[in-house]
Every structure is written in structure tokens, then in C-alpha cells.
Amino acid sequence: MNEAMALLLLVGGVLLLLGAPIWATIGLASASYIWVQGFPTNLIVQRMFNNMDSFLLLAVPMFMLAGEVMNTSGLTARLLDLAHVLLRRLRAGLAMANLGTNMMMAGISGSALADASALTALMKPKMVEQGYRASFVAALTAAGSIVAPIIPPSITFILFSVLADVSVIDLFMAGILPGVVIVVFQMFTVNILSRRGRIPAHDAAPALKTGVALRRAIPVLILPIIIVGGIRGGVFTPIEGAAVALAYALALAVLMRRIRADQLLHLSWDVAKGMGEILLMIGSASLLAWVIVAEQIPAGVASTMLSVTSDPLMLLIIINVLLLLVGMVLDNFAAMVIFVPILMPVVQQYGIDPVHFGVIVNVNLMIGSITPPVGLSLFVTSRVAGVSFESSVKEILPFIAASLLALGVITYVPALSLAIPGLLK
């Protein structure tokens, strides 16, 4: 290892120990490498701006704000009513409705944390009243929320598209069936838990009539149809689709008088801060990616992988384990911007479809987001539900197992990811 790389690792390690934001850790560590190597310092700014200068990233804050408006205005509660009406006759009907609502909400915001926190607040009173443990509500909602960035529209797929130069439309279409597969596996888990007496088998929660629930939910359900159908049909680009989604969400909230001007201002400020952090992450990752290429790390990783195995299936096992471990401790944005530039050249050498790989990366990192020791989504739902993180960890283990089984199916049945993009070409 040369002196510049040693300094990069030292600076990065110290900053992590000091609790610095991940974007600052990556950016300053990479900048120290460039400084020691004697490259012009303006290279730092140029490389950081390189990936941030992407027109596609304009879609991210608009999708984020659209989801926040729908959650804050209470419109997502209508999805819960519909899911409860449709699923209440199944065993553990309220738990099934929780997962069904998560799947429908995924087509609106593309943000796991936003959906998880909003739905936990909605579901906890209803489910606790019917005999569910609050810790179970937190765990179930966190587990169901992992499909939010997988089913389109997806903020993380937009980021992957920028980092890997892959069609975002293909990625959106590729996430539909894998997202459904994950929800189905989790629903089977709920059914098993109810049969074993660990959660109520039936509930008596009052439900709206089917026609009423459907009529109330239709305006909300139209939104993902407009987004996905419009983008796939060529009516508008992903960026224009994000603008349409935001305009539609605002129009609904205002016409139904479910949002105030001060709330909208607060949400806009939160989204702006979040987008600022995302851009800083992308900029610092772009700088790190340049360092990685300069050090010929992708070639080294590829040669190491080839020496270990020449089987693409075995390679995917190694990558799955790596990304799951990374997802346990890093935010999915941070993990993606660090590892996608390293792994993309490797999977291309093995002939793995980049769209399929994008789905695998996303699913791995989202499962990691509900897995201890960090489990950010689980931490958020535990806090909203007012229970300890430790108690929620015990409840979520069966759902982590179910999600891992779904990941195995998604990994080794590429058709689940590639069928819809292939049909629509």
C-alpha cells in the first residue's frame, strides 16, 4: 500500500471515529489522497461536480416532496383503509393490511423511512387495540417498508442509474415483481406466526365498506399509475414524471384542505436539507471513485474474484454477503455510492445484466437497513411506536429471514427483474 492510500484510510478512519458525516469522511479522505499525490487541487472540485451534474437528479427532491405531502396530508391513511378492506378476511388481517399498505405507499414516495414512520403512527393504535404488541407493529412496519425504494418510483434506483449509467426506466420496471415477491414472502411469515399463536389470528377492527374504501383511495392510487405509465409510455421523462407527481399530490392535498402553507414550507425545507446531503454524498463518492480507478482497485477486485471463482452464481453469493454486511452499518445511499463503482466493472466481466444487478444491490441494502446493529428503518419505527429497539429486534428476525429467502429467489431468477423491461422494449 502506498503512502497516499495509507493517508486516505487514516483520515477516513479518524473521521469515522469522530462521528463525522459519511460524505465528509469520504470527501476529505479522498481529497487528502489527491493532495499527497501532488495532483492539482482544482481536480477535487471537478471530480465532485462530475456526478452531481446530472439532469436526472432533479427528479429526486420532487419525488421526496410528493411522498411527504401525501403522508402529511393524511392521504396515505386511505390506502390503509383499502388494504384493510381487501385483506381483513385473511389470518392476521390487520398485519396483512400493514404490508399491503406498505406496498401501495411504495408507488408514491420511494422512501422507506418516510413510509415507515408515517405508517407506524397510523397502525400502532389500531393494531395494539386488537392485541398486537407495539414492538411487533414497529418490526412489521419496518420490514414492509423495504419495498418502498424497490417498487417504482425509486429514489435509490435514480441514484444507481446515475452511478452505473443504466436506464432508470428499465430499473423502475425491474423493481415491480421483486417488490411483490418480498411482500408475498413476508405475508407468508405473518400467516405462520398467526398459526403458531404469536400474533392474533383474527381481528375485529371496524372496516369501511369496500365501495367506500375504494372510492376514497382511487385518487391516491391514480398517482403511481400516472408516474409509471407516463414514463414507460414516453408521455414524459422521469424528471417530468416527478414534477407531475408533485403537482398531483399538492393539488389533492390543497383541494381536500389537508395541508397548510406552514406545513408545506416545513416539508420543503426538510426535503431541501435531505437533498443537500444526497448531493454531497454523490460528490464525495465521485471523488472516491476517481481515486479507486487511479489505484486500479476495480481491476484488482475483478482479478481476485476471478481467482476465487469463475462462476457468476458464486460471485453473486459473495456480493450478496458483502452488501448485506455493508447495509447493516451504512445508509443505503452511502453504501451505493461507495460500492457500485467498484462492483460494476466486476459484474460486467461476469456477464451479469446491470439492471438485474441494480435490483440485487437495492434489495440487499434495504434488508440491511432493518438488520441490527444499526437497522435505521427499525430504529425509526421503534421510536415512533414508543418501544425499545431491542424488543423490536426480536420481533423482526422472522421477517429478515423471509426477506433473505426472497432475495435468494430474486438473485437466482433474473427473469423476475428482467421480464417486464424486456416485454416493454
UniProtKB/TrEMBL annotation:
Could you say which protein family the record assigns here? Answer: Belongs to the TRAP transporter large permease family.
**One example GO MF annotation:** transmembrane transporter activity
Q: What is its main location?
A: membrane
Q: Name one GO cellular component term.
A: plasma membrane
Q: Which residues cross the membrane?
A: 55-80, 132-151, 171-193, 214-235, 241-259, 271-293, 313-343, 355-376, 396-424
State the oligomer form and interacting partners: The complex comprises the extracytoplasmic solute receptor protein and the two transmembrane proteins.
Function, as annotated, reads:
Part of the tripartite ATP-independent periplasmic (TRAP) transport system.
The name on file for this protein is TRAP transporter large permease protein
Q: Which domain of life is it from?
A: Bacteria
Organism per entry:
Hydrogenophaga intermedia
Subcellular localization is given as:
Cell inner membrane
> Which UniProt keywords are listed?
Cell inner membrane, Cell membrane, Membrane, Transmembrane, Transmembrane helix, Transport
> Which residue numbers delimit the TRAP C4-dicarboxylate transport system permease DctM subunit domain?
14-416
Q: Provide the topology term for how it sits in the membrane.
A: Multi-pass membrane protein
Q: Which Pfam family, just one, is annotated for this protein?
A: DctM
Cell membrane as UniProt keyword: yes
